[in-house]
Specification:
The protein is mainly β and about 350 residues long. It is about 10% helix and about 40% strand. Strand 13 and strand 14 form a beta hairpin.
């Protein structure tokens, strides 16, 4: 709840009005969400949940670790338990155990105690896959030895009803994107592709052209927290090379200190994103028509929402209480709950 005081002045009078505003999460997915997920390499998921209404392919390639700072057992199971849930994978379809082959499903058994990768780069925790859920899951027949000291899930079944409870709004609405585009044009960075380059503005002024590989120099002069909006024309292939932006910059860290907290809400319409080796991105990536792809080792801190999610290389995907407590504006909803004339 927030109290906002507004003062209006006239040479002969003054009015002071106070509004009471409730700020809540909008219902967008928090963590990683895509219609289809395919994993390879040695990716790590730290304190972050992955949700899909489709299939998760290549589960054994990913190491989940830690506890989600946002989602609770109630969000996934509707059982009233408000404890935070261990980081895990949740698919309305199937979770496949072999990348590319789709020749083995994680469930059954229920639970599957060996699906989580626990060796090599970015290893996960032993038994963490006990909290995975899929459309082929069911009642637990036991618990996983060596798993973290958290309550086991009531089931490994994950349905569309559960998905809607965890992420009631899987995407923003078009009116939201219009507002975000306007915000990027006035106070952030807005780009329109032109051939092999991007023609951009920064904070309402012309910024020139940049290549489709975003380097640190392209982001110079922007505020600590901003919206970066790229507008590919509709009608092409959003996942093609020509409509894919490469990210080779660093934005961060997440901090409770406003002077040092840095984040970006990156929106690519009708296009995709490829994270490049050595890059970092704190904030949110929204690809309503495109794919999140990757190359090499990089780190994202926050939320990814895409049509497709391709996990490659030695990527680290993480979330934190810091990000949840500093959730960017597009993920929040405000409701006026009251007002008063405090000078009367």
């Amino acid at each position: 709840e927030m109290h906002i005081t507004s003062t209006g002045r006239h040479p002969a009078a003054k009015r002071v009005v106070r509004q009471v505003v409730e700020i809540t999460a909008l219902g967008l997915p928090i963590g990683a969400y895509a219609d289809a997920i395919d994993a390879n390499g040695s990716g790590g998921m730290t304190n972050i949940s992955v949700v899909t209404p489709g299939d998760f392919n290549g589960r054994e390639k990913i190491g989940f670790f830690g506890t989600d700072p946002y989602y609770t057992y109630e969000d996934f199971y509707g059982n009233g338990d408000t404890d935070k849930i261990p980081a895990s994978a949740h698919a309305v379809g199937s979770i496949y155990y072999v990348s590319g082959g789709k020749n083995k499903k994680e469930h059954p058994p229920s639970p599957n105690c060996t699906a989580n990768r626990t060796t090599g780069a970015n290893p996960g925790s032993v038994g963490q896959s006990m909290w995975d859920g899929s459309g082929t899951g069911g009642a637990l027949t036991g618990v996983c030895a060596g798993a973290m000291a958290a309550a086991p899930p009531p089931t490994t079944l994950f349905t569309e009803t559960d998905r809607k409870r965890a992420a009631p709004r899987p995407q923003l609405e078009e009116k939201d994107y219009i507002a975000l585009r306007a915000a990027a044009q006035t106070s952030g960075m807005y780009c329109v592709p032109s051939g092999a380059n991007l023609s951009c503005t920064k904070q309402g002024g012309a910024a020139g052209t940049f290549g489709k590989t975003i380097q640190p120099a392209a982001l110079a002069g922007l505020p600590n927290n901003y919206i970066f909006y790229v507008d590919f024309a509709s009608g092409g292939d959003p996942t093609s090379v020509a409509q894919t932006l490469k990210w080779k910059a660093s934005v961060g860290p997440c901090s409770y200190d406003p002077a040092t907290h840095r984040s970006v809400v990156l929106i690519i319409r009708n296009g995709s994103l490829s994270m490049e080796n050595g890059s970092t991105l704190t904030g949110a990536v929204l690809l309503p028509e495109g794919a999140f792809d990757s190359s090499g080792n990089f780190t994202t801190h926050g939320t990814i929402i895409a049509e497709e999610f391709r996990i490659r290389g030695g990527a680290v995907f993480e979330n934190s209480a810091c990000w949840v407590d500093n959730m960017p504006g597009p993920f929040l909803d405000t409701t006026l709950t009251g007002w008063s004339e405090i000078d009367r």
